[in-house]
Every structure is written in C-alpha cells, then in structure tokens.
C-alpha cells in the first residue's frame, strides 16, 4: 500500500473535470444496421457507436487488431454493462496468410484469494459475496490484453486508437431505451457498492436520449492513451484502484496489478465436416465444449431431421448435457489444473459418451456423470475483418451486467465480478447455475473458468466465418447452434443468427428455451421424451461475419436481441 503516498493525494487533487458541452456525435436514435454486405471490411459489435469507431479506424488504414483495440475502448464507454477496462476477455486472431493466435486477457484472482473465501465459517456459500462488491473483483486484464495485441499486430499509434473513446466519454453520448432501462434497474446496486455516486446514477429516472457523460473515465482513458499499459496498472489509475481497495477492504494489491500479464495461448483447432474451426482454449471452456459437442454429433444428419424439429433439438440438447457434465469435473485454469483436453476431444471418447444416447428418451442428469477421458450478460462480443483479410474475434466481459457494481472512485470505470466464475464450493451453482469442483476452485493468481467462445472458421484454407456471443454458459451452446445453422442446416446468416435458441448445461436438468422459440407441438414432443422445457430470457447476442463463397463479399450480421450494429464498406 506504499503507493498511497503524498503523491497519491496530490494526484487526487489534480483529477480534472474539464467542462464540455454535449454535442451530437451521430443523430439519435442511432441508425442500427442489422445486416450489411461489404466489399472490403466489416465490424459487428454491441453498439452502433462502437461499430462506427471500428470502421473509422479500418478506413484510416488500421489493421483488424487496431480496430479491435478502438472498439474495446469505445465499448468501455458506450456499453458500460460489459464493454470494459475493469474486466477481461479473450481475443482470437487469424491473419490473411492463415496464421492464428489466441490472447488470454482473463482476470486473475488476487494473490490473497483463498478456496473458501466465498463460504461462511460453517462452509455455507455466500452467493452475493462473489457477485456484488469488492470481493467479487478479479485483477482486470483488458488494458494489458489490448496493449499486448496492439504491440504484436497493431499499425496505427496507440493513442489514436483511444481518442474516439476519450471523446465519447468526455462529450457523452445519448443512451438507448435498453440502456436507460438497465441503468434504472441498477441504481440501488451502484449506490450500495460505490463510495462516490458514479455517473451511471441519476436522481430522476434515465430516459432514452439522455446524455451519459463520463469525465472520470475520460481522464483514465487519457492516462492509458499517454502511458500505455502503465497508465492503468501503475501511476494515477493504480492509485485510484488501490484507494478503492483500501476504502472497501478489498484484496487487490499493487503487486497484483503490476504482476498481471495476459498470455498468448495456442488456439484450439480442429476439423469438422469440411471446415476448420479455431477457438479459445482453457481457461475458457468454450472452444473445448464446442469441439466436444460437434464431435458427439458424429455423422448424424441434422438437416434431414429438420431445423427446430424435436429429433434435432433432442440430439443437440443431449450433446450439450454431456459436454457440460465434463466441464464441471475437468475444466479449469490450465496453469493450475491439468485439463485433459486431448482426451476430452478424442473421437473415440466422444462416441463413447454418446453410447447411451436414446433418440426417443432424455437422459437424466442426476444419473449422468462426467466421463473419464484417457489422458492424462453479461459479456459482449465483436467480430472484425479488415481490408487485407485479417480477422479478429473478441469476447470481453465484466461477467454479470455491470460486474461487481463497484465503480472506482475518480476512475469512472466498473470492476468485474469474475470471481463468481470460480466454483465457490464443489457443487454450488454460480450465477449461471453452473457447478464445478476442484478444477475450478478459487486460488490466488488463478484464472476462473470461462465459457467465452470467440471463434473463426475457415473452409479450403480461406476465411469463412467470424463469430461469438455473450451469455455466460449459453455462449458455447449459442456458437454451436449458429455453426450448425450455417454449416449443417444451410440457413442464410441472418436466420442463423436471429433464429431462436435453446440451451442445456447438464444441471439444472432442463432445456432452457427463449420465449416463443418452439412451436406448440414441439414442447409436448420433447416433454414426452422426458425433457423438462423451461422458458427464459433471450439467449446470447451473436455478432457474425460470413465471407460469401462465390463473391468473397463480407456479410455482417448483428443480433436483433440488442442495440447491436453491423457495418462495412
Ligand atoms: N463471465 C462469463 C464467462 O467468462 O463465461
């Protein structure tokens, strides 16, 4: 805590709040394009202003990674529920020559974290402690991740990439109906968890079209623009984070900040029915679950079963159930736990997992255990393809919408609640209802298991699809279903993304479906097989770019489920 010195106080006094009047950046309500067909380059993200920022960078000659950096920082301003600098994520990159790289900028547990920190003295789980407030926060990875990606694959100057985000934070932007509703819902949680009233809280209710101005965040972004990585993990921003920890008795220390480093990992790669799939390896479970689910389908012809037919949904739900049972037992941070990735993806193992599959009858999750392989909202996603054909797929998060609801006083940014992605105790569900065991127990410096699945698909060595989505544990099953929609059911991209989705995650033992997802006959047909079918809120917000096989044009589709916007030129 020695960083909290006299200099810190001077720094706090220096924090500016330059006055600036709100001026429209683009007309409100925004024009939201859900689908574009582009000749050269495309961006799809959760917010029209972030999509526009990415396109501007690409037009100025930036690479896909330059655009990704600019979009990430823009989302930290215009999509505060998940776009972030206080969280983390995963970036998957494939260059025009086919070389791929995967960057893990997932948050880490503070060094002082312990396996039982979310339990009381009798071992009972304290669920709110991992979800709200200072103990929910992992050491953020986003700024280091963007810095590292830019260092390796960027072309335009770093500061130039942050300027749009600084301007959006300083001048403000007009919030949409969804944003107004969400900010109103979170008002009490922000007041409870913040030491000073953050810009997300307003006396009266927020209305669509209101300006959200974030001057503290603009200052933080200026420090990052000027000092790079050190502008967050050191200097003034670190002082503000440590002051917050000190005021709220949190665990993150100066050493935790200094020691945070994102990690380049080998992308998970596999072939499936004529395409080649690149995705994220552990500490995300996403890529491995995708590989398992696609593998467990074997040679079954889904198209002949029919899109959203009882037979197809039953098969897909059974595959999802089995993969999630394996997740709970075997998957965790590979730097702390030996994940039997090869065994879990082995074709013989995957077909043995389906040996008890009955095409007429649901398996009961309580009788289905994880296999023994031989071997050893809230989140957000954006997809980008640049003019040279380089592709980036990024999923990034604070975990829950608005993370821990702790806004760093004077820093203007929200800290994540990624500690909830650990297993607080074997068998205890996290906020997504997912359970885990030893593999994903809390430990100092460990990364919590993720479900994020940024994915890139190639066909005949050429880029075919860039895809991903938010949605916690529904992420891998949403990506799985979009891949099947495109490559097995041959649906146009818009339908592949916009069609209703469902989800099975082993426990709870139910097929979760979006409202009005299935026809009236379908639900009784699934129930007759022994499935429980439960309606739920929308699943995922998929952002996809598909390279048309004939023309090579880029079809970009943004999910209808939010303010998500596609753009291209
Ligand atoms: N926080 C959601 C995930 O990483 O899967």
Task: Summarize, please.
The chain has 19 helices and 19 strands.
Structure description:
The protein is globular and about 60 Å long. The chain has 569 residues and is of the alpha+beta class. Helix 3 (64-78) packs parallel to helix 6. A hairpin with a 5-residue loop joins strand 3 and strand 4. It folds into two domains: 6-31 and 46-260 and 379-440, no CATH class; 265-376 and 452-550, Gamma-glutamyltranspeptidase, large (L) subunit, C-terminal domain (Serum Albumin, Chain A, Domain 1). It contains 19 helices and 19 strands. The protein starts with 5 loop residues before the first helix and ends with a strand. 34% of the residues lie in helices and 15% in strands. The protein has a seven-stranded antiparallel beta sheet. The structure holds glycine. The site of glycine has 8 residues, from loops.
Notable traits:
alpha+beta, Serum Albumin, Chain A, Domain 1, 2 domains, seven-stranded antiparallel β-sheet, 15% strand, globular, disordered N terminus
Per-chain topology:
Blueprint: H1 6-14, E1 35-38, E2 42-45, H2 48-59, H3 64-78, E3 88-94, E4 100-105, H4 127-131, H5 142-153, H6 158-171, E5 173-174, H7 177-193, E6 211-212, H8 215-227, H9 230-233, H10 235-248, H11 254-259, E7 263-265, E8 268-272, E9 275-279, H12 286-296, H13 302-305, H14 310-330, H15 341-345, H16 347-353, E10 379-385, E11 391-397, E12 455-459, E13 462-468, H17 474-487, H18 493-498, E14 502-503, E15 511-514, H19 522-528, E16 533-536, E17 543-547, E18 554-558, E19 565-568
Parallel strand pairs: 15-16
Antiparallel strand pairs: 1-18, 2-10, 2-19, 3-4, 3-11, 4-7, 5-6, 8-9, 9-12, 10-11, 12-13, 13-17, 14-15, 17-18
The protein binds glycine.
């Amino acid at each position: 805590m020695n960083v909290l010195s006299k200099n810190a106080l001077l720094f706090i006094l220096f924090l500016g709040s330059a006055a600036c009047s709100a001026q429209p950046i683009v007309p409100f309500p925004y024009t939201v394009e859900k689908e574009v067909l582009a000749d050269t380059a495309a961006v799809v993200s959760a917010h029209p202003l972030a999509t526009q920022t990415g396109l501007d960078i690409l037009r100025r000659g930036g690479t896909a990674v330059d655009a990704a950096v600019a979009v990430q920082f823009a989302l930290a301003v215009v999509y505060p529920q998940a776009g972030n600098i206080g969280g983390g994520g995963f970036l998957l990159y494939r260059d025009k020559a086919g070389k791929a790289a995967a960057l893990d900028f997932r948050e880490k547990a503070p060094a002082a974290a312990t396996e039982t920190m979310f339990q009381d003295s009798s071992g009972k789980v304290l669920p709110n402690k991992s979800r709200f407030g200072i103990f929910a926060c992992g050491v953020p990875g986003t700024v280091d991740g963007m810095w590292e990606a830019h260092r390796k694959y960027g072309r335009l100057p770093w500061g130039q990439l942050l300027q749009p985000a600084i301007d959006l934070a300083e001048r403000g932007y007009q919030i949409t109906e969804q944003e107004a509703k969400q900010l109103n819902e979170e008002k009490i949680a922000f007041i409870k968890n913040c030491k000073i009233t953050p810009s997300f809280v307003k006396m009266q209710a927020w209305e669509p079209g209101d300006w959200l101005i974030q001057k503290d965040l603009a200052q933080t972004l200026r420090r990052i623009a000027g000092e790079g990585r050190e502008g967050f993990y050191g200097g003034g921003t670190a002082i503000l984070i440590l002051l917050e920890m000190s005021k709220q008795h949190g665990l993150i220390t100066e050493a935790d900040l200094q020691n945070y480093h994102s990690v380049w990992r080998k992308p998970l790669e596999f072939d499936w029915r004529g395409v080649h799939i690149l995705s994220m390896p552990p500490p995300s479970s996403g890529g491995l679950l995708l590989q398992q689910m696609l593998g467990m389908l074997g040679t079954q012809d889904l198209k002949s079963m029919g899109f959203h037919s009882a037979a197809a949904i039953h098969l897909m739900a059974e595959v999802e159930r089995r993969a999630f049972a394996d997740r709970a037992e075997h998957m965790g941070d590979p730097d702390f736990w030996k994940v039997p990735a090869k065994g879990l993806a082995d074709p013989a193992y995957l077909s043995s997992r389906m040996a008890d599959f009955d095409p007429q009858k649901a398996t009961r999750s309580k009788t289905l255990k994880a296999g023994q392989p031989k071997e050893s909202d809230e989140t957000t996603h954006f997809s980008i393809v640049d003019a040279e054909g380089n592709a980036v797929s990024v999923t990034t998060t604070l975990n829950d919408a608005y993370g821990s609801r702790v806004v760093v006083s004077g820093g203007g940014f929200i800290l994540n609640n990624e500690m909830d992605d650990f297993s607080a105790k074997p068998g205890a569900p996290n906020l997504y209802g997912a359970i885990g065991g030893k593999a994903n127990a809390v430990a100092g410096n460990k990364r919590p298991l993720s479900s994020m699945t940024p994915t890139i698909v190639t066909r005949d060595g050429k880029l075919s699809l860039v895809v991903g989505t938010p949605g916690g544990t529904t992420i891998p099953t949403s990506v799985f279903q979009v891949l099947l929609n495109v490559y097995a059911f041959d649906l146009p991209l818009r339908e592949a993304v916009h069609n209703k989705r469902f989800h099975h995650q082993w426990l709870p033992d139910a097929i979760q479906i979006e409202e009005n997802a299935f026809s009236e006959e379908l639900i009784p047909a699934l129930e007759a097989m022994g499935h429980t079918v439960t309606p739920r809120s929308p699943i995922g917000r998929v952002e996809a770019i598909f390279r048309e096989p004939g023309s090579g044009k880029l079809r970009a589709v943004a999910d209808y489920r939010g303010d998500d916007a596609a753009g291209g030129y």
